[in-house]
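[recover] target loaded
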């Protein structure tokens, strides 16, 4: 089988596409024939060796893949060869075959394509846990999503609506992406590229929430946008720190938390996969159900073959991706 292989930590485009022996499942594991692999912002950090988890060398990057179970290891009772699954792993998905723990593989409904399922892999679960387990979103509340052009942002807009948010506000940096966010479910759009974001953002969000402020902020961006969004929260609002796509880790002023009874919290989705596999599986099942009901629909703006993984990552780093870019592994050779 062929796989993208990182032999040394380095530039995100320095991994090689190599021929490797087919993997064999150990006890409790399955081998998945990958049809589509998810490409994510953190994959770059994993290849560069700057991510919080550094896989042992050599390894294949990639945190999720959709495909078909080929082999099952000893003691696996929940899956059989031929099952369509979405595998959510720490690394290994940029490959034609992937070994995963059986409890990391989620049966896919027949109606969802491999590409769309792979696109759900990391960011929809991130959005789901951020909104439910960190923000305790209640039906009828308002949600402000920063970075609403990107993977986490688009997913958060759609999952917030699916969970019953009354108002979802998308924060973007240009008008075209604002229109796209509205097409994908946002009720309002705010421009994060304006001068004096600190005051203008609060005014804009207050104007869209009857002067109340938003109940929840989902922040995959960080930097000035995070600091400004904190001021746009309502009394008892919740800020969920998800990532730092701006490259700037913000400092949160504790006085804001006190004055409006605000909660600032963080989200690391892989912890749920490793610490609470049953909760993780239930979340994925809920997301597939939302898809079935037409409440969410992953937006894939580009697919590329496995060999062009570096182009996909470069598109993410350069801000050229709207929604998701996916490796179409079937067409890779
Ligand atoms: N905590 C977790 O479990 C978890 C899971 C998945 C991802 N993440 C993290 O979440 C972050 C986003 O991931 P993603 O997949 O959504 O990435 P992405 O698809 O590349 O999207 C990044 C978004 O951030 C926006 N952005 C970047 N710099 C900005 C700035 N200075 N001001 C305002 N907006 C800015 C981009 O808009 P423009 O293109 O207009 O700049 C885009 O909408 C990354 O840091 C990633 O590592 C965390």
């Amino acid at each position: 089988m062929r796989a993208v292989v990182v032999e040394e930590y380095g530039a995100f485009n320095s991994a090689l596409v190599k021929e490797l022996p087919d993997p064999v499942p150990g006890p409790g594991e399955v081998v998945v024939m990958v049809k589509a692999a998810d490409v994510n912002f953190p994959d770059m950090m994993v290849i560069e060796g700057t991510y919080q988890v550094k896989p042992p060398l050599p390894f294949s990057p990639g945190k999720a893949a959709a495909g078909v179970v080929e082999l099952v290891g000893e003691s696996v009772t929940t899956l059989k060869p031929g099952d369509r699954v979405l595998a959510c792993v720490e690394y290994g998905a940029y490959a034609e075959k992937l070994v995963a723990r059986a409890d990391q593989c989620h049966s896919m409904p027949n109606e969802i394509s491999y590409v769309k399922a792979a696109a759900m892999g990391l960011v929809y679960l991130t959005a789901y846990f951020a909104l439910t387990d960190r923000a305790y979103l209640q039906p009828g509340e308002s949600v402000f999503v920063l970075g609403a052009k990107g993977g986490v942002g688009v997913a958060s807009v759609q999952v917030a609506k699916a969970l019953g948010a009354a108002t979802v506000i998308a924060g973007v940096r240009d008008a075209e992406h604002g229109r796209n966010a509205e097409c994908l479910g946002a009720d309002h759009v705010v421009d994060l590229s304006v001068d004096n974001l600190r005051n203008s953002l609060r005014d804009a969000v207050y104007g869209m929430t009857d002067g109340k402020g938003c109940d929840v902020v989902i922040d995959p961006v960080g930097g000035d946008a995070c600091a400004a969004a904190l001021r746009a929260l309502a009394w008892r609002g919740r800020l969920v720190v998800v990532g730092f796509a701006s490259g700037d880790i913000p400092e949160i002023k504790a006085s804001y938390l006190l004055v409006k009874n605000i909660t600032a919290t963080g989200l690391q989705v892989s912890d749920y996969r490793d610490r609470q596999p049953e909760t993780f599986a239930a979340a994925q099942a809920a997301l597939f159900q939302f898809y079935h009901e037409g409440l969410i629909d992953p937006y894939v703006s580009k697919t590329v073959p496995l060999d062009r993984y570096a182009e996909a990552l470069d598109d993410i780093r350069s801000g050229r991706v709207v929604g998701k870019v996916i490796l179409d592994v079937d067409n890779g050779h």
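[recover] notes: Residues 142 and 219 are 14 Å apart (CA to CA).
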